[in-house]
Amino acid sequence: MKKLLLSAAIVLGGLTVANAQATEVVSAKNKTVQTSVETESSNRLIAAQSTTAVQNYKEVMVSELPQSVKNTVAKNFNGATISKAYVNAQGDYKIHLATNDAKTATVYVNANGEMIKNELKKQ
What we know:
Helix content is 51%, strand content 21%. The chain is α+β, with helices and mostly antiparallel strands and 123 residues long. A five-stranded antiparallel beta sheet has the order 1-2-3-4-5, with helices on one face. A hairpin with a 5-residue loop joins strand 3 and strand 4 (104-109).
């Protein structure tokens, strides 16, 4: 009878230890998943903030554009005309172009006339 009780106690003790180890593994996996979800949420927030920053442009008259910006557009987009222009707080310009073949494009140029982003191939 003593052997039976001792065997039962050993089996129950072993199951308790195995269950505790499994709980630790599950807990570690939950922390990993939680960390990746937090990272993904953080990345989405940063992306949303940068999109908002890009959209904070104020419309300006084409005649108010710096000559360096006009020169860059004329040099890189032969025959294209500036239909609208916008400027942000950093002095970057968002320029809508109308090309000779009735296409439109948007390019981004800084105040020094350096191309930031080009959504139309050089002609």
